[in-house]
Amino acid sequence: MLDVRRLRMLQHLAAYGTIAATADALHLTGPAVSQQLAVLEREAGVPVVEKRGRTLCLTPAGELLVAHAEVILGDLAAAESDLAALKGGHHGVLRVAAFASVARTLLPHVYRALSRHEDGTAPTLTLRLDEQEPDQALEALRKHRTDVVVAHSYTVLPRNFPHHSQQEFLMEDPVVLCVHPERARSLGLSPGQPADLARLADDPWLTPGPDTSCYEMIQRACGAAGFVPDIRVRSSDFSVLLTLVAAHAGVALAPRLAVPEPHDGVSLHPLLAPVARTICTVVRPGTARNPDVHQFRSLLEQAAARHGSPPTADS
């Protein structure tokens, strides 16, 4: 009979890629992992890993077992979550990974709600937050280094989520054009009026770095408008970009949630061909009903509802 613990170890090997990294993640020694793999192969009756050069790879049988392991371990996680809920929850430590604009705008509401205890007792749930871009955060989720990811996916740039992961919608975040008010007037744009990106083809552009999905979104949005942006400034700090827009350095596209307040000297406009990002929470299979995960998601949803659909007109 197959042992669930060894299936979990094989799942980790598939995620981490090496025996050394798997051993480190599971707090085991390399020889212990190798020994357990050998036992698993005897249980399965077929090889589950094979060497290709210096790399250890899963065999077709190993890949099949990992696929089944995802389902089995997801069901076990769901059972544990239901038991925890039945007992009233364990209220422990929850590891969260979220991108910067959500960490800046929504998560403070969650922290304030968790710290609000009229009887003076300590918070029942402790968050450990890592600010990470979605790609890195989802990889951390796959490797069991985080419990909940707050991620996004642009309408012009769909995102691949880990197999069997569970996503839950949080909010839509529109992308807006950020220009100096004088440039807006020269384009005949009144406050909040939708802008045609094609009319900005000859402007200097300010963008995040090329390692971000926002950069790729801008490339695709401008490409759909018929031009390649002339990028003069790259900074993944949107406060830097908006400050430079206010200094006549150029124009920028930004998700509305990423625009710092106040944005003096900057005129914001929705796009004539709308672009938005969908923000969602992502968890591993079977953990959505965990009381701590449920509490965090509920508080985050409340924060998103209070934030509402951000206005695109000047304020």
Automatic annotation (TrEMBL):
Membrane-spanning segments: none
Keywords: DNA-binding, Transcription, Transcription regulation
HTH lysR-type domain mapped to chain residues: 2-59
SUPFAM superfamilies assigned: Periplasmic binding protein-like II, Winged helix' DNA-binding domain
InterPro entries membership: LysR_HTH_N (IPR000847), LysR_subst-bd (IPR005119), WH-like_DNA-bd_sf (IPR036388), WH_DNA-bd_sf (IPR036390)
Family according to the record: Belongs to the LysR transcriptional regulatory family.
Name by which UniProt lists this protein: LysR family transcriptional regulator
Classification of source organism: Bacteria, Bacillati, Actinomycetota, Actinomycetes, Kitasatosporales
